[in-house]
From TrEMBL:
GO biological process: cell wall mannoprotein biosynthetic process; protein N-linked glycosylation; protein O-linked glycosylation
UniProt feature coiled coil, ranges: none
Any one GO CC term of the record: Golgi apparatus
Gene3D superfamilies: Spore Coat Polysaccharide Biosynthesis Protein SpsA, Chain A
GO molecular function (one): alpha-1,2-mannosyltransferase activity
InterPro entries: Glyco_trans_15, Nucleotide-diphossugar_trans
Name of the molecule in the record: Alpha-1,2 mannosyltransferase KTR1
Region feature Disordered, mapped onto this chain: 34-85
Source organism of this protein record: Amylocarpus encephaloides
Record family assignment: Belongs to the glycosyltransferase 15 family.
Length: 410
């Protein structure tokens, strides 16, 4: 009996000791109610309303009000970067669907972080369907300028009345069998025709003079510390690019025939000192298929709205090659720029490092890459590869190629 009583007393003592240890630990740390996080000794607790504790001293000018030990990652926590002069009448423009939201969000962050946080230019989003609330909320939260959302008119996103639908369908079926990229796509053809002839006519675009086209899922690798639009205006540039290459021959078999018809009908539009040498190896008899990749372009909207470009696009549109073949907007823009502009009105942005699957433009020249905080691998640079047309652009313009370009050739 005595031994049993002693056993119970030992159990009681052990239980009491365990409770004391738990109490000691819990009294050494306190949780913020509802936060799920622990405040360790020495960190002041938030005061309840009406508390007699002395209020914190107000922050002096320029002093962060954020609690010591935390990061100032709050709205307005850091001063914004600022541009150093008046902005141009310019906008970014993106053709995107609602389903592209996270891909275009990535592109916006690239542009904002590397460039637009300094300048706060507007952004126009265009879609052949109405934008949903998620697309608008996310993009508005990311863009430092004002966002504009527009729906494309049916007239600009449909088959024109002169197109033979049966003939166009047979072309798509044939291209599908030959596995030509986007060869069987109707929507891709509408997109190419819209980007070739109508995006600059949209009511939301008519207020602007300059544009920078941005596609979903692009990447910028280097800081851009100057106003690219102002550079274009100050240097009398009207069109620009960062990547160039040869177009798929199967998609544009008669594009140059239509172009020659235009040149014969409108010799008044062909610029003196143009870039025919970029487009043709035989003085214009045939097309060498070189074009500037239009998923990146900074350009002048008044030029695109002008009579020369309008006449060129209308010639192509009437010939039907957007639907009877698969004419892309890149060769259309490039041929127009090559013929209707002087050579010096086209600019190659070596310092704008850019990626759009599957090609990369990474600035040639180590000093440029280091100065601009670039994170691209120079081995990925496409500029001097055999399938690029950028060397040709340098040659016809009498430009010196950047130091080190030889090391990036095939």
């Amino acid at each position: 009996m005595a031994s049993g009583t002693a056993r119970y007393l030992r159990y009681i003592l052990f239980a009491f000791f365990g409770l004391a240890v738990i109490y000691f630990i819990s009294s050494s740390s306190t949780q913020i109610p509802g936060s799920g996080t622990t405040k360790w000794p020495g960190t002041p607790m938030p005061q309840k309303p009406g508390s007699s504790a002395a209020p914190a001293a107000p922050a002096t000018a320029g002093e962060s009000t954020v609690t010591s030990g935390t990061t100032p990652n709050i709205p307005e926590g850091l001063p914004p970067a600022a541009h150093d002069g008046p902005r141009m009448n310019a906008t970014f423009v993106s053709l995107a669907r609602n389903s592209d939201i996270w891909e275009i969000a990535r592109s916006i962050r690239q542009i904002e972080d590397r460039f637009n946080k300094k300048f706060k230019y507007d952004w126009v989003f265009l879609n052949d369907k109405p934008f949903d609330s998620t697309f608008k909320k996310v993009t508005t939260s990311l863009v430092s300028g004002t966002t504009h959302y527009g729906e494309i008119s049916k007239e600009h996103w449909s088959f024109p009345e002169w197109i033979d639908q049966d003939k166009a369908r047979k072309v798509r079926e044939d291209m599908a069998q030959r596995k030509i990229i986007y060869g069987d796509s109707v929507s891709y053809r509408h997109m190419c025709r819209f980007e070739s002839g109508f995006f600059f006519q949209h009511p939301l675009m008519k207020q602007f003079e300059w544009y920078w086209r941005v596609e979903p899922s692009i990447e910028l690798f280097c800081d851009i510390n100057y106003d690219t639009f102002k550079y274009m205006a100050d240097n009398k540039k009207k069109y620009s690019f960062v990547l160039s290459l040869y177009e798929y021959v199967e998609t544009i078999p008669t594009l140059w025939d239509s172009t020659k018809k235009f040149m014969k009908a409108h010799p008044e539009h062909i610029a003196e000192g143009n870039s025919m040498g970029f487009l043709s190896d035989d003085g214009g008899e045939s097309y060498n298929h070189c074009h500037m990749w239009s998923n990146f372009e900074i350009g002048n909207l008044d030029w695109l709205r002008g009579q020369a470009y309008t006449d060129y696009f209308n010639t192509l549109d009437q010939d039907g090659g957007f639907f009877y073949e698969r004419w892309g907007d890149a060769p259309v823009h490039s041929i127009a720029a090559g013929l209707l502009l002087k050579k010096e009105e086209i600019h190659f942005f070596n310092d704008i490092a850019y990626y759009h699957v599957p090609f990369t433009h990474c600035p040639t020249g180590e000093k440029t890459r280091l100065d601009l905080k670039c994170h691209c691998n120079p081995k990925d640079n496409f500029d001097w590869k055999g399938y690029s047309c950028t060397s040709r652009f340098f040659e016809i313009n009498g430009l010196d190629k950047p130091e080190g370009y030889e090391n990036q050739q095939d």
